[in-house]
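note to self: the first set is below, dont mix up w the second
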Amino acid sequence: MAAVSTKHIGVFDSGVGGLSVLKALQSRRPEMRYTYFADSLHAPYGSLDSKTLLVYSERIVSFLQSQGAELIVVACNTLTTELIGELRSRFKLPFVGIEPAVKPAAVQSLNKRIGVLATQRTLKSAGYRSTCQLYASDVTLVERVGAGLVEAIEHLPWTSKELRAQIKYFTDEFRLHDIDTLVLGCTHYPLVESLFCELLGESVKVLSAAEAVAKRVEQLTPNTQGSQSELRLYTSGSAEHLAQLVERLSFTQLKSVSRLEL
């Protein structure tokens, strides 16, 4: 993909998970204008068929484009795997997607035992399997479906005992398999990365793909002169809930948080 001349980036996900990607983007390109859409009303996307996902995605991309976005970041593994090609064919916009950080995990792992926590749909996808074959053929992958975890992160307080117990269920399982690296294969999971790190201990490195996406966007947008930093957020769910999370994550240049059902 060639370099893009843009000062406005649109980002969307099935809910608040894409905030982890947005945070990384804003860290690398703080001078940019960002518009984010959290489709919390329809989360999780992993439970929806491809036709329905395409309808929702087209509506969101059209909205982001109407707001002036000139580059779209699809902050959802399911959409990237199944529909990003279709979106590229329907919109004359550059798209950047996301996939689990299996490649860097395979490089960094010392004992070649890697845990991957993702949705069932991502783990079964052709794109994920292809990545594993290309870059992780020499490692042992311990794959687990994060059943119910997206919903928990969407709706439970991140300091709640219930959420901690859910995460501990998964980290205990990974510890039994002696992994030294864990891939958080859904954008929701890095929002509570500190819990994973605490429960796994210092011997296990935790990786997500948010930083890789931000680096890719940085490479594609070499010229940002004249940009006016701004962040506007929209959600099909609770604007109050989204505003609370955004405050906790300490985003900069926030202009508004609004509810919008497309």
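second set (the one i keep forgetting abt)
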Amino acid sequence: MKTDLPNLMRQRQLDAVVINGPDGMSAANPNYNYLIAPAHDISGHVIVKADGSTYLLHRTMERDEAAQSGLKLINYDSYNRKQIIADRNGDRLAAEVELWRRIFADLKIDGRVGFYGNEDQGKAYAFLNALAREEVCEVVTEFENDALLEARATKDAWEAEQIVKACRATEQVMADTRAWLQGHRVTNETLLTSDGQPLTIGDAKRFLRMRCFAFGLDESNTIFAIGRDAGVPHSRGNENDPIMLGKTIIFDIFPRLNGYYADITRTWCLGYAPDYVQKAYDHVMQVHASTEQKFSTKRYCWEMQENACALFEAFGHKTQRQDLAATSGYLHGLGHGFGLAVHESPVMSLRGMRPDEKFQIGTIICNEPGLYYPDDPRGGWGVRIEDDYWCNFDGTFQRLTEFDRALVVPM
């Protein structure tokens, strides 16, 4: 949580952190968005000192938006960067280093400074090396489990509320999409458009994107895949594929609302489900329920994945535990944290991959077991069911998603 950041900085002996934020509300820069929320669409930088005081460096034209962040404000333009560049004979890198020397001097920052946020790798490497070379500060970088990621791994009540809002809007899009599918006539087990052409995956994606827009959801790359594509976990689906009865459709939708993601998956068979799909669906739901029952702050996250693998293996399915390169059976981790990014800590992966991760108060995580058989001679198929959970302040896990899990959609 944000309140943990000063302590995380002390653990790393950081005198300050700088979060680069040129992308405003872009999903590509969650660390920056984390600290400026509830403000958004501001190009700037956030600076946090070891005492917890937090500053937003912004441009003049964004001063009103910057004020919505509630942070202490520094007008970037007051440093007259144009003059600094002229004084450095047009050397923009030297000018940038001098600019930050002045900013750090004004904020009385020296010593160890951690750098976060998103920037082109070459540009960031050149800048950070120049800062260190000119002894502006001691540059600190972290490869993984950095201070910001660790803070974001747990969510406070306000963040959980934002994710619930995203879930409710997403569930309405799912309900509308299901009703829209049900409204189409069927000939020879194929859904048809009003002009008699086969309804396609592309048609469904265009519809759901319009509904996302109507609810203020920022959507991209939704998985809506049928048949064999449903048997490949991250296949987005072929837009030209016709939508047919009896084939599995994996609908995995993960849009943002006010910067925070929902992440929900349902599997549908329109009209009816083949017996072998129904059986696999029942196996998936047994693993899903077992995971939900075992959630606890006393457990390591890998215990959930080991339990899922053991159950699936007992049902006769190959798992990731037996073969990481398998292309059928249970092929992925059981779930992951999310918030301002669609993948955050913690992760329910195999034992040994993240051995020390435990669930904590404030953890938000998805539970998404699945089975995949893309090359089944009866026709490729896949099943996945995903719901979202928050470990609230009494240590119990609350399911945030409410949408029904019915496999068969009556037509």
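remember for set 2: Residues 153-409 form a domain with the Creatine Amidinohydrolase fold (CATH 3.90.230.10).
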